[in-house]
Amino acid sequence: MRIDPHTHSAASDGTDSPAGLVHAAAAAGLDVVGLTDHDTVRGWAEAEAAARQAGVALLRGAELSCQWRGVTVHLLSYLHDPADLTLSGEMEAARRSRLDRARTMVDRISRDYPITWASVQAQVGAGATVGRPHIADALVAAGVMPDRSTAFDTVLSVRGPYYIPYHAPDAVEAVAMVRAAGGVPVMAHPRASVRGRVVPDAVVAQMAEAGLAGLEIDHRDHTAGAVEELAALAARLGLARTGSSDYHGAGKPNRLGEHTTAPAVLERIESEGFLPVVRP
Ligand code: AMP
Ligand code: ZN
Ligand code: FE
Ligand code: FE
Fold first, then answer.
1. What's the predicted TM-score (pTM) here?
2. Which ligand is nearest to the CA of 194?
3. pLDDT digits over 121-132, tens only?
4. Nearest of 2, 204, 27 to residue 216 by alpha carbon
5. Ligand 1 touching residue 134 (CB < 6 A)
6. Which option is the CATH number for 3-81+171-272: 3.40.50.970, 3.20.20.140, 3.40.50.300, 3.30.43.10?
């Protein structure tokens, strides 16, 4: 069983359509793929139909934008009830805030680079959650950056002069919100320090207390040392261990299935979730 529970489609900042992503997962030999677009479940319906066709199981999820004292935290929510108004309202608020933030970043960047809000919008799929990757795509289209990764390392860096944060719920409160919506919360890439600051263990412990189910330990943004420390932390807090590719399509080097999750962990997620895994 090959299970890759964290990927993105064009419903947020991936480059494959939801159906294209599912077919790519089948071609990559995955048995189960998790679709976890940023702050949206918009891709679920299309992915579900494709999963039945492609013979791949689909784990429906989302990656919620959260923060702890200004530090970005990504929380995976699996199998939650999409009709839950608190959770869907929080996702809607994060999407709106991301949009404002993108406009302001583009204002700043456009003083120094030949992009406009219109040229960024041209990179965003209909109704998709906006993020820095779309700004990167506009910089690439303008011919001033070779690819997304270079744009992230320079113009779009958290440590750069153009970076702006956006409103997002507190990570501990978000864990409780996911549980209240029947979802299973897993903290995404808890030690991805290449992306910016990370939260201390004490905050992970508070999240565990609030109902966190697991830690995404096996992820390309973690060093071997971080993996070891996180494995110990998960054991201490009684949290499950997940691994994933965090695939974004063509815009990122991450390959489907480069890290995977054990079947027993998926079983636990499914047993605690409001929705079932879609099986072909
Ligand atoms: P944002 O959420 O707007 O702050 O942008 C960060 C997101 O960009 C994360 O989800 C990253 O996974 C994603 N991303 C996509 N392509 C890249 C890339 N080539 N380098 C770094 N981050 C990327
Ligand atoms: Zn992303
Ligand atoms: Fe993330
Ligand atoms: Fe992600």
1. 0.97
2. 1
3. 999 999 999 999
4. 204
5. no
6. 3.20.20.140
